[in-house]
Design brief:
The complex is a heterodimer of chains A (about 250) and B (about 325).
Chain A (H helix, E strand, L loop, with lengths): L1 E12 L2 E12 L3 E5 L6 H9 L6 E6 L2 E2 L5 H7 L1 E3 L12 H12 L14 H13 L15 H13 L5 E5 L7 H17 L3 E5 L3 H7 L2 E6 L2 E6 L1 H5 L2 H13 L1
Helix pairs in contact in A: 3-4, 3-5, 5-6
Chain B lengths: L7 H21 L2 H27 L7 H18 L4 H23 L4 H21 L1 H4 L5 E2 L16 H28 L2 H11 L1 H6 L4 H27 L1 E2 L6 H14 L6 H19 L3 H15 L3 H15 L4
Antiparallel strand pairs in B: 1-2
Helix pairs in contact in B: 2-7, 2-10, 2-11, 2-12, 3-4, 3-10, 4-5, 4-10, 8-10, 11-12, 11-14, 12-13
Classes of the chains: A alpha/beta (about 250), B mainly alpha (about 325).
């Protein structure tokens, strides 16, 4: 059953066709990888779907509702969340407060001026639980800006996860971390996402990560979808190998 | 905010003795010193409000003189047209007027950030400054408006009572109570979910949007709270000063608010309070000592920014951390 569908979704930047009439479907419960070389349009597609950019034309449907012109807040409320390619955290808040803020926001409590955030034990307990799931509990009281790159990547995902989305976009969750750290990070992310019944779309350049963790892969090239299939089908797709996986096959 | 906030128990550990010292202050200090300290407390209320924008929301306003001036002029106009001299009425009038003006100005300003926000706030404060000059039949023009010593909770200054003694005791305690309430309230606000949302906006506006924080609306609320605090300070300041003139609407006064917040350290909750009190003494000393007092304050500011970029309280915080790390002999 499809959770999200885009119809002829288009976004141009001048003469550059960043997203070019893309028909894209995400099925409920799957962990899908969006791959492509730099400039293929992956991040722009996610930016348009998540509301950071307005599409030039086309439609976006989520859970049978047209959300093409919905605001970021309406999309979040409908169940779409995302993390960012460059880690986007609240650096001068603790790791716990980063998570707590998402939970406060989800519960509509950020409007409260005259209540102490720390006194809300329900939110604190949930935030602590999320940090534990992501293996960050020992860092709960540390400022987010003081965490290692791997920890920041995990916290970035955890902040989005705390919104309890139906669909989670993860933009390069392992970029900038050492090869050794990639598998543990992806193990945690996929385990948390699957146990939470969340559908995830992962933008990733590392093909080892993609083939290991994502049962379905969508390849993009020059703003359009080039291929869509299982890891085996993508490996054997000549267009994809010619454009993206050449080096991988020889590795 | 460069470090994790102190837990409430540790805040109380230093706040209670400090409060006791402030209560005893008029009994050990000269009336002049106490009155001077009242000015410092009033400015500290303005600084608390200002820092909600600068330290917690990441917006540098160069127009807070507008709200301070609106609070002060609201009081002066209440005296002029309603012939009322109750400080409680002054406070309500100052709060309502500054909240209304900051709501209006904030609606325009929070659409912008960084230098555009700063310039816009400054330009709007200059509009009020010029209006205070032009509408002299209402505002008294450059002569300003006089404000008599007000009654406090229905009690007037006793016949024959020295005004300085009145200001140094009864008025001081009145201001102290309001200062304590404002400080406690601001402490709750910055530690509330709303306060966390403001800090999130300061740290990363885009991400804040993507966790569902309505950035522009929250900035506007912060702006109104900030302006109202500053307006309240203006309403408390004018009976102390006895006169309000357009000078307090000029952007130069906004610069002073920025100055004492930076001096104390906008990265800490207590920094602006300390900065306001220190600046008040520093300015009084400089004005009495040299005609080049503005140059003196300029040199102090340059030195502070270069030597102590985190302000007085930032330095105190670092020293206390260092001291705690030194092992016992």
């Amino acid at each position: 059953m499809s959770l999200l569908t885009t119809g002829k979704l288009t976004k141009y930047f001048g003469d550059t066709h960043a997203v070019d009439h893309v028909d894209f479907t995400v099925r409920e419960g799957e962990v899908l990888a969006l791959i492509g070389s730099n400039g293929a349009g992956k991040t722009t597609l996610v930016n348009v779907i998540s509301g950071l950019l307005a599409p030039d034309s086309g439609t976006i449907r989520f859970r049978d509702a047209d959300i093409t012109s919905a605001t970021i807040h309406e999309k979040i409320a409908s169940g779409i969340a995302r993390s960012f390619q460059l880690v986007n955290l609240f650096d001068q808040l603790s790791a716990l407060d980063n998570i707590a803020l998402s939970i406060f926001s989800r519960q509509g409590k950020t409007r409260r001026l005259f209540a102490l955030a720390d006194a809300d034990t329900e939110v604190r307990d949930e935030a602590t639980g999320v940090l534990e799931q992501f293996g960050l509990l020992p860092k709960a009281r540390m400022l987010a800006g003081g965490l290692s790159q791997g920890e920041r990547k995990l916290l970035d995902v955890a902040v989005a996860y705390s919104l309890r989305p139906k669909l989670l976009f993860l933009d390069e969750p392992t970029s900038g971390v050492s090869t050794r750290e990639k598998a543990p990070i992806m193990d945690i992310i996929t385990q948390v996402v699957r146990s939470g019944g969340i559908t995830a779309v992962i933008i990733e350049h590392d093909m080892d990560v993609v083939f290991t963790y994502c049962p379905r892969i969508v390849a993009m090239h020059q703003g359009a979808i080039l291929a869509d299939g299982t890891p085996e089908e993508i490996r054997n797709n000549e267009q994809v190998t010619a454009n993206m996986l050449g080096t991988h096959r020889h590795a | 905010m460069s470090a994790l906030p102190l837990p409430p128990t540790r805040v109380l550990r230093w706040a209670v003795p400090l409060l006791a010292a402030l209560v005893l202050f008029p009994w050990v200090a000269e009336p002049y010193q106490t009155t001077l300290f009242s000015y410092g407390l009033v400015m500290a209320i303005a600084a608390l409000g200002f820092n909600l924008l600068l330290g917690y929301t990441g917006l540098l306003s160069f127009g807070h003189s507008a709200y301070f001036g609106v609070g002060a002029y609201a009081v002066a106009l209440i005296v002029k047209y309603l012939h009322v001299s109750s400080l409680e009425v002054f406070i309500v009038g100052g709060i309502l007027a500054s909240a209304a003006v900051s709501a209006l100005f904030g609606f325009v300003c929070v659409r912008y950030t960084r230098i555009f926000f700063s310039i816009l706030t400054m330009a709007l404060s200059q509009v009020l400054w010029s209006l205070a000059f032009k509408f002299f039949w209402v505002t008294g023009g450059s002569d300003g408006l006089r404000v008599p010593t007000p009654s406090l909770l229905g009690t007037h200054i006793d016949p024959g009572e020295d005004k300085m003694t009145y200001l140094a005791h009864r008025y001081y305690y009145y201001v102290l109570v309001i200062f304590v309430v404002c400080t406690a309230l601001m402490w709750v606000i910055v530690h509330s979910p709303f306060g966390k949302a403001l800090q999130a906006i300061r740290d990363n506006e885009t991400r804040a949007e993507f966790v569902g924080v309505q950035v522009r609306h929250y900035r506007w609320v912060a702006f109104v709270v900030s302006g109202t605090y500053t307006g309240l300070a203006g309403a408390l300041w004018v009976p102390l000063n006895g006169l309000t003139t357009p000078d307090i609407l000029h952007w130069g006064f906004s610069g002073e608010i920025v100055f004492f917040t930076v001096l104390g350290g906008f990265g800490t909750f207590a920094g602006p309070i300390v900065g306001a009190i220190v600046f008040n003494y520093l300015k009084t000393f400089a004005v009495g000592y040299t005609v080049y007092w503005q140059m003196f304050l300029g040199v102090v500011l340059v030195t502070m920014v270069m030597a102590l970029p985190t302000g007085i309280m930032g330095m105190v915080g670092r020293l206390s951390q260092k001291w705690r790390r030194v092992p016992a002999p």
